[in-house]
Amino acid sequence: MKSAIAEVAQTYGIESWGAGYFGINSRGHLIVHPAEGDPRSVDVKQVVDDLLARRIKLPLILRFPQIFAGQVRKLNQSFRSAMKEYEYKGEHLAVFPMKVNQRRQVIEAYLEEATKYNYGLEAGSKPELYAAIALDQSPDSLLVCNGFKDDGFIDLAYIGTEIGKNVVIVIEKLNELPKVIDRTLASGTRPMLGMRVRLYTRGSGRWEKSGGEQSKFGLTTTELLQAVKMLREAGMIDMVRVLHFHIGSQITQIKRVKAGVKEAARVYAKIRKMGIDVDHLNVGGGAGVDYDGSKTSFESSANYTMQEFANDVIYTIKGVCEEENVPEPNVITESGRILVAYHAMLITNIIDEIETVQGIHNITLTDDEPQVINELYDLYKTMTSKNFLEYYHDALEHKEELFTLFDLGFVNLEERAKGETLFWEVCDRANNFAKLSQLKSEEFDDLRKLLSAKYLCNFSVFRSVPDHWAIDQLFPIIPIHKLNEVPTDTATLVDITCDSDGVVDKFVDLHDVKEVLEVHDLKPNEPYYLALLLIGAYQEVMGNFHNLFGTTNEAHVLVSGDGEYHISRIIPGSQVGDMLSFAKYEHDFLQEGFRTLLNRQIKKGKLTEEQADRLVEDYEGYYNGYTYLDTNGNR
Question: Does some domain include residue 222?
Fold first, then answer.
């Protein structure tokens, strides 16, 4: 017989999606291992309690930089292993795409580990490039410049080259090339150039359309040949060192990776045979994260491991190079999601529960109730395991009748409330009988979701997990405590924004997408915390400020050699004033407006000077407050 902890671990799928970083301890608390296979662990509930004691409010992001470092290390080991196995002669030079998470503390954590392997950065805009130029990379690493470029972008790339960075300017569009040629002639500086080719092959999953013939990026074969001609005529063909392609993000099928690499390797070989000394093949990003743990080609999963990804990239390139009798190029990868996703989680507290079933004890029936209410009550009292399906259908008809009678004025508000309560009680009882009979029915699957509570969570979906709202991306969600108790309830999650889209109603599952999350019964005055995991890629940088909810507090957690954790860094989230300034409500403007209104009330005799001063103090006090609800972790 399974222990409660083992059953709970299976319910939430920790071993499937956790990649060896997450588990449950004997206290029933979520734990984090700093590295795969590392026996040391951090008790997440203990960390949260520690932070709350320091008056750090929820919601908050917990970062585990050692996990990030572990993923970088794993990438290096995977490619070293593949190159050794296939006797590959080139090098592996990874770059981290800053767009995946540009936050300074994230990039610094990456560079601390990446420097050991000569791994660099990729910038896709002027702000990203401006920051990257100033960061201390390994002198042998690359700074790859992708994206559409104007004169300013190209000038920045040349500045980076002139201060000693190994800059690669990737030509995305043919009209970028004359700017590069002119800048080279004017300065005498010669950065490395890359050519991004538009492959026929597309990726798989949600971002499949970002690759292939209709991609907005890359040169067609004709344009590639034109670029070669232009550079030959300018005497700059030796600057072309990199062939680049990218077939999409979160590629779910390894066969698509192999197809793209094979096509690009063939282009590389043909370019080499044209007398162009390209010696790097940039295979782009797209290595997928298995968010749901299913290890399939589902859009929130990936049917391969990091090692398999590395093996197939290296094996495929080597095979084409041997066929074409050309040198094996250095391999550049731009996979960021798989490196950074695991290291961050959002902790939120449940503020309240919105229940559908209120309980029949809340109503009292009289002798003159409308017939429809008496009939609903009879259904409730006489339902059995044999008639529950029929009675449920009868209840649906009575519900329609109830609302029709209300619209016609034959049922008052109190009677409508009684009827609604009875209807949901009938549904709840029918659902329980359906569970006992193990009835498999889409109808009752929908009913189960309707009957599930809504847990009001102290966070913004739009700020913290925008991909769930925008593209139905799945993220593992799990309580950080009570994991030694089998959850008996189910719920969907709603955030604190004033928007009906602020919900989480799709949850990870090995075999399907769950519409409800298994949760524990909420107890009065007892906090209940949830963790939203694997949010380190894209979520923070793509999150918006809907309702002016800002960035959350965050803490960086490290595990020392003796197994003890320490909080190495705390970064405050946005204050009310920060968000008002973002929306161009400057402090002086608001203060002036508030005082104007106060003076009007004073002149009307509705406020005294003393009362006005108190209101100014109270109003001003909230300017530096946290944008989220202040509950001290409690309901």
Answer: yes
